[in-house]
Every structure is written in C-alpha cells, then in structure tokens.
C-alpha cells in the first residue's frame, strides 16, 4: 500500500529565501509522484511529476523536486520565494487503482 | 493543456434542498472522474470514483444515497448533494483523467464552495 507524509503543516519563509517542502512516501511498487498547488478557493494545479528517468524534475513557476529512492523522499524546492508562491502544496503518489494517495498538505507562508 | 470545468464555483442553499455540481472535461475524454471533499485546513478526501457508463464506487463512510454521482458521458460527471444539511457545507472538487496509466496526472476543476444555511 502507498502512503504519503508531508512534514510540517505550515512552512514560513521570507521573500527571496529558499523554499523547501518535504514529502516522504512509502510504496511497494515503483512510485509515480506528484506535487500539486492549491490557491485559496481554487482547485489544484499540477506543479510537477516524477515517473521514470531523471530524478530531478523541473516544474512550473521555478519549482523542482528530486526523487531519492534511498530516502523515499520527493522534496519540493524553489531557490527564491515570491509572494505569489503563498498557497497550499500537496504531495501525492499514484496508487494501484489509478487513484492518488494524498499527503496532508503544507501551507506555504511568505513573509515580506 | 487539458481543462476541467466545474460549475457552479459557489452555491448557497437552504437546508433540505438538493444541489447539483457539474464537472466537464472540455478538451479530452475523461474515462474516470474523481470527486473530493475538502474540509477547512485539511487535505482532500476522496468521496467516490466514477467511470463513464457505470455506477460510481464510493469510499467507506460516504453515503451514496446522499451524494449521487452520475457519469453519463465521457465529458460530464455530476455530483448531487441531496437533502443538504449545514454539515454538508464544504469545498467540493472534481478531477478527471483521460488515460488509465499510473503516471497520467489528474486535471482538476476549480472547485465548488457549498454553503448550506
């Protein structure tokens, strides 16, 4: 069975600082991993995904994530935070029945 | 890219009435659609999975007689909240997937904010 753990329900960084949102997963099969972003009162938007191949995945809005099998992690990073990055971020792994198994979400707060 | 349109974006209804939420895939055929519910400050909770032309599969604890799901075509799924109560107030989000592969991403609607008074 798959599961996803996001460390930290809230992460606060200063504008211009590094953003690091943590995601660890468990999966009995090779995982497909996703990061989604949700802006207030909106649906979710795919940031990036890992399927196979290159372990460093680049997404939209300057975000990237690295798949580390040995650490069962898929942390999301951005070198320099922008005010517009304030949102909730969800990590997910694809389950055996094509559903997504979701992490609890991390709310990113950007301080001016 | 693939677009999923969800309507209405917000609705207020009186207790005891029914509300229908539509989810449409605009430029692809959605063989599978998912309905989620999101409580404030919580993650998404999968309510049900619907496949075109067949009955929806509901998650444990979700009342199928209260949350009616219809997936009549490859581009439309509807969620009807019947006899709504204030505790049904929530944010409902649909998502759709065109190809049944593990790595194909879901495409999400913008959600519907339901308030039951």
Structure description:
The complex is a heterodimer of chains A (112) and B (117). Chain A is mainly β. Chain A has no helices and eleven strands. In chain A, strands 2, 4, 5, 9, 10 and 11 form a six-stranded mixed sheet that branches. The relative contact order of chain A is 0.33. In chain B, strands 2, 4, 5, 6, 9, 10 and 11 form a seven-stranded mixed sheet that branches. Chain B has a four-stranded antiparallel sheet with strand order 1-3-8-7, with no helix packed on it. Helices cover 0% and strands 51% of the residues of chain B. The N and C termini of chain B lie far apart (37 Å). In chain B, a hairpin with a 5-residue loop joins strand 5 and strand 6 (57-58). Chain B is globular and about 40 Å long. Chain B is built from no helices and eleven strands. The model of chain B has no long low-confidence stretch (mean pLDDT 88). With 117 residues, chain B is an all-beta fold. At the A-B interface, strand 5 of A face strand 5, strand 9 and strand 10 of B.
Helix content class of chain B = under 10%
Structural class call of chain A reads mainly beta
Please state the CA-atom Rg of chain A, rounded to the nearest Å.
13 Å
Counting DSSP E segments of at least 2 residues, the number of strands of chain A comes to 11
| Biggest sheet character of chain B | 7 strands, mixed
The string of secondary-structure elements of chain A, in order, is EEEEEEEEEEE
What kind of sheet is the major sheet of chain A?
6 strands, mixed
- Reading the helices and strands of chain B in chain order gives EEEEEEEEEEE
How many angstroms does the end-to-end distance of chain B come to? 37 Å
Structure summary, number of beta strands of chain B: 11
β-strand amount of chain B: over 45%
Give a concise summary.
The complex is a heterodimer of chains A (112) and B (117). Chain A contains no helices and 11 strands. Chain A has 112 residues and is an all-beta fold.
């Amino acid at each position: 069975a798959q599961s996803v753990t996001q460390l930290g329900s809230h992460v606060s960084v200063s504008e211009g600082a590094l953003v690091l949102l943590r995601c660890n997963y468990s999966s009995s099969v090779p995982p497909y991993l996703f990061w989604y972003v949700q802006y207030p009162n909106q649906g979710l938007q795919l940031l990036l995904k890992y399927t196979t191949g290159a372990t460093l995945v680049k997404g939209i809005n300057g975000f990237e994530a690295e798949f580390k099998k040995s650490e069962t992690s898929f942390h999301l990073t951005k070198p320099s935070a922008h005010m517009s990055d304030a949102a909730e971020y969800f990590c997910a792994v694809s389950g055996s029945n094509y559903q997504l198994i979701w992490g609890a979400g991390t709310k990113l707060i950007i301080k001016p | 890219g693939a677009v999923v349109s969800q309507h209405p974006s917000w609705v207020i209804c009186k207790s005891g009435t029914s509300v229908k939420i539509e989810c449409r895939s605009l430029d692809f055929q959605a063989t599978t659609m998912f309905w989620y519910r999101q409580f404030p400050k919580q993650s998404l909770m999968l309510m049900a999975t619907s496949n075109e032309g067949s009955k929806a599969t509901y998650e444990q604890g979700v009342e199928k007689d209260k949350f009616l799901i219809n997936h009549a075509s490859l581009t439309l799924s509807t969620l009807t909240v019947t006899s709504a109560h204030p505790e049904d107030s929530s944010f409902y989000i649909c998502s759709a997937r065109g190809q049944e592969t593990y790595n194909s991403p879901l495409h999400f609607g913008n959600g519907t904010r339901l308030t039951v008074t």
